[in-house]
Amino acid sequence: MYFKFEATLPDNSLVSAWRREIWNEGFAPLLWVISPARIDLYNGFGTPVSNDDAQTHLIQTFQNIEGELEELDRLAGRLSLETGQFWLTPEAVDGQTTVDQKLLSDLRYLERDLVGDDLDRASAQALIGRVIFTQYLIDRDIVNAARLKKLCGYNSLPPILRDARSTRCLFTWLTETFNGDMFPTRSVGRAPRAGHLARVSDFLEAVDPQTRQTSFFPYQFDVIPVEVISSIYEQFAHAEPPSSGRGVTAAARDGVHYTRVSLVSLVLDEVMQGLKGTESVLDLTCGSGVFLVEALRRLVLLRVGQQPVTRQFIRSTLYQQIYGVDLSEAAIRVAAFSLYLAALELDPDPQPPHALRFRPLIGSNLLVGDAHNVDQIGDVRAAMSSEQDVKKFDVIVGNPPWSFKGKQGTAERHRNSDGATPMQPRGEGLDFLFRAIEFSHKHTRFGMVLSALPFFSRSGTGMAAAQHVLETLAPVTLVNLSNLCGWLFATATMPAVVLLARHRPQKADQVTIVQIPWSASGARTHTFEVSPSDVMKPLLSDIQKHPLMLKAASVGRHRDLSLLDSLLSAYETFGAQLATWDAELNVGMIRGIPANQTRDAREMKGLELLETDDIRPFHIPPELPVFSLSKAQWPRARAIYEKPILIVKETLSAGPRALVAVAERDLVYTNAFFGAALPVTRRNEAHLLAGILSSSLASWFFLMTASEFGIWKRRLLRHDISLLPIPDPVRAIRTDAGKRLLNTVRSLREKTVAGDDWSALDEAVCDLYDLDHADRLVVRDGLYRASWQWQYGRENSVANADIDQDLPLYADAFISVISGWLAARKKRRMRAEIFRVSSLDPLRVVRFILEDGASGPAVAVLDPGTDLKKLLQQIGNRLNVKLATALSAARELRIHGQNEVVIIKPAARRYWMGVSALEDADAVVAETFTRAAREN
Question: 433 and 513: one domain?
């Protein structure tokens, strides 16, 4: 955010100018204007509408008096912003009105109008790119009004574009002054007519093409970040007309996705930390060059250190250390364009223009070609080859295509593979990663944005490919971005992970996994919110033993991994149990369109048909429509429709619980369901299994291990269900717990299942598995965490924790862990003090005190007699901790004192779950032992 101070109250036009510049930068959501009498808070993301529009974007004014300053602190103070509390307020700023969103919208209409006026799309895009670059030079005063007047007869760009002769003069001069990378001498397509140039001129003058009314032109290209150019390229790529009858654009087919600046920063912050600035950087799928632009900036600053930045440093870094490859010539031209702009931006004195001629990048540093064979293409071979082998690079980054090109594409990939490297079963992201490894040496750092799906695949080939990556590039960090699909890659059809490798010292047998949760602040500001509890570090050997652990560590906590390991070790899987009965889980019938109904379905004719909306928990209607087709696309075998059938709905459309029922008559079910036809003698076992599959334990397990649920789609796959560990149903049904569960399931068959019913079912299942109190908390919260795959669940997870309900449950769970350690000697106990701060405060504070006495633990909610800010000051003073600094760095604090620990965390409910309490207590115990060992 920005802060501006004026000794007297600034006038509206001055504030409007500040705010317009901030909007054009596109990074800061808030502007604080401070004067002696008051503080004005402005929206930094609101689109400018005039030179005097500051009041339109005023969020609130606060007088310089104690009461109003306290209100400001609650609304937008440090704690409110750093904990994300500010973004929960209805009047909070929204990233939908940022400069990149507005510019993309305007350019989309401009391109549409040019193409609609019979200019081919490539020429339209080239014209727009030239105009943006020229306006950039003008706004940065690299080409000033006097030079424009001398060259073209006008001192600004719009009138030049309305004069065909002046336009030719300008573009010719630009081509000569710079080079053909940006302004190729050969025409991309048809030359624009006068009407096309006039339409672009209208854009620069903010003239509405229909009404001819002039509005306000908000853009300042001397301020707009170069990276916005990359988003323009993505929009251009996706604007291409579909290349197939299925309405798929080439960009979508090839996996073209704009990489946001915040994600580029996340990657480069890691892989470039501690570098000297002399390193080389490669992006094998560079697209419009967003990674290369930011890498150039960082290398220049690292290389010069404390010295002044010079043009020589900038140019030598650009020519000798930055390399990119892409199939698209258009993308490579935008990458060159963006790198030249970045070099000009870094140049301390970009004058005079004729001295700024760049050496061509295309063909030397930026190569048009396929990453898989770029070192074998005649014209560009030298750029990517050394005397003995391919060139080796120090840093390899990028966002390779995530595309899946069907069976034909997979077959082609297999034909071109070396046969030794495991291949992901769908998509080609890892192919590019394995290719990148060929350009690396043993110390090369990697930072790649990839599809998340290969890392959580349950196929043998998928798991082999993922583990090969982890082993080859160890030590590896995976950053799970799947919770951010809504805004991070809006055009993608898959979730994302970031793979970082060899970028920081850690154990080679350790995999660091970072879970970035959905947050209201992230969704509105396009930033990431990470806390210490979002970082897991499982051992590679544990993942190799149980591949399910990789997904579990990406969505769960240490307690989840421990329970998962325990269940996998103690029980057979659901699929293995079915096999003992010569049964399996099958996909239902695919009716298909008439043209595809070619297979004989007469055996099923006359049976009742179960379709998507016919089922509810434990219940199948007594009467269903009759299946009447003689043929279907995939009718399946008649035997799978024989009673009793355990039926599971594929999608989790109604919530995080699987929808399960038992059919006690023969019937046909569609491919919206999976079904297992069990022996007639196993009817009771079928109902027992229905209870297990419908329970919170199953929901927790599917969240932790399923290929897609919790990562991408709200659905289950057959192998997800088959991997569920279950007690032997034949034995279980004879136990007291099994009998209770069976009775519970039978009682729910003819009623609408409500909250208490589900609780009773969950307890019965936990009894069957003989789970202790802590594991039941993990399972219960697993169901809650599974609900975060729906928007209502996400919003609930960031809502403020209730001091009288959520926090006492947290405190009880925390104390239960510590009490286990104290129980042996029975001389001490722990009690909790929950401080009653305002329900709107951004933090919650709980103090745990260890004291003499063997009586039971106690939890009390206390009024601290002061506000949150003073409470934190008191705690900090008493425990000698600078809380403001510590909270800024860590977000979650455990502060140890003499016989006490104070826990301070954001108010969001996700920080105060039962499983969070168990994890926090485990950490306190570990820290206590570590401190004791250090002192001894």
Answer: yes
The pairing of beta strand 440-451 with beta strand 496-501: antiparallel
- Highest mean pLDDT out of 201-215, 546-560, 886-900: 546-560
Residue 736 resides in a domain: yes
pLDDT in tens, 349-400: 887 766 678 888 988 999 999 998 888 776 666 778 776 778 999 999 999 9
Report the 10 Å Cβ neighbour count for 410. 17
Read off the pLDDT of residues 54-96 as tens digits, 9 standing for 90 and up.
999 999 999 999 889 989 988 898 888 888 888 877 777 877 7
Last residue of a domain, one of 555, 581, 609: 555
At residue 143, φ and ψ (nearest 5 deg) are -115, 105
Domain co-membership, 36 together with 63: yes
CA angle 810, 815, 817 (to 5 degrees): 105
List, as one string, the DSSP characters of 528-597: ----GGGEE--BHHHHHH-THHHHHHHH--HHHHHHHHHHHHHSEEHHHHHHHTT---EE-BB---GGG-
| Residue ending a domain, choose from 555, 582, 612 | 555
Question: Does 824 score more than 80 pLDDT?
Answer: no
Strand intervals (E) in 48-187: 58-63
- Given a contact cutoff of 8 angstroms between Cβ atoms, the answer to whether 136 and 338 are in contact is no
**Going edge to edge, which strands form the sheet with 893-897?**
858-862, 828-835, 843-852, 900-906, 893-897
What one-letter code names the amino acid at 777? Answer: L
| Per-residue confidence (pLDDT) for residue 420, from 0 to 100 | 65
Question: Which range, of 58-62, 192-196, 222-226, averages the lowest pLDDT?
Answer: 222-226
Same domain, 214 and 262: no
| Together in a domain, 538 and 606 | no
- Tokens representing residue 862 in the block: 């206390």
Beta strands in 409-565 (DSSP E): 440-451, 476-480, 496-501, 511-515, 535-536
Question: Residues 439, 528: one domain?
Answer: yes
Kindly list the distances between the CA atom of residue 218 and the CA atoms of 28, 48, 49, 705, in Å, as whole numbers in the listed order: 16, 6, 7, 49
Check residue 491 and give its pLDDT.
67
Distance CA 585, CA 449 (A): 35
Any domain includes 751: yes
Residues 446 and 354 occupy one common structural domain = no
Cβ neighbours for 97, distance < 8 A, ≥ 6 positions apart: 45, 46, 47
Kindly give, in sequence order, each residue whose CB lies less than 8 Å from that of residue 477, ignoring residues fewer than 6 positions away.
270, 498, 499, 500, 501, 503, 504, 511, 512, 513, 514
The answer to the question of residue 564 being in a domain is no
Q: Which two tokens stand for residue 884?
A: 């403001």
The C-alpha atoms of residue 132 and residue 153 are separated, in whole angstroms, by: 20
Same domain, 682 and 577: yes
Q: Which residues contact 713 (CB under 8 A, 6 or more apart)?
A: none
Overall number of domains in the chain: 6
Whether 374 is in a domain gets the answer: no
CATH number at residue 431: 3.40.50.150
- Judge if 612 and 625 occupy the same domain: yes
Own/partner pairs for 366-370, CB < 8 Å, 24+ apart?
366/181, 366/286, 366/289, 366/323, 366/324, 366/325, 366/326, 366/332, 366/335, 366/336, 366/339, 367/323, 367/324, 367/325, 367/326, 367/332, 368/326, 368/327, 368/328, 368/329, 368/332, 369/325, 369/327, 370/327
| Three-state SS at 731 | helix
pLDDT of residue 575: 97
Which range of residues forms the domain containing residue 925?
799-935
With b for 16 or more beta-carbon neighbours within 10 A and e for fewer, the 288-325 pattern comes to bbbbbbbbbbbbbebbbeeeeeebebbbebbeebbbbb
pLDDT above 70: residue 505: yes
Give every strand in the sheet of 673-677, ordered side by side.
586-587, 673-677, 645-649, 660-663
* C-alpha to C-alpha distance for 625 and 645, rounded to whole angstroms: 18
434 phi and psi, to 5 degrees?
-65, -35
CATH at residue 772: 3.90.220.20
Q: Look at residues 765, 824, 833, 814 and name the one whose alpha carbon lies nearest to residue 921.
A: 814
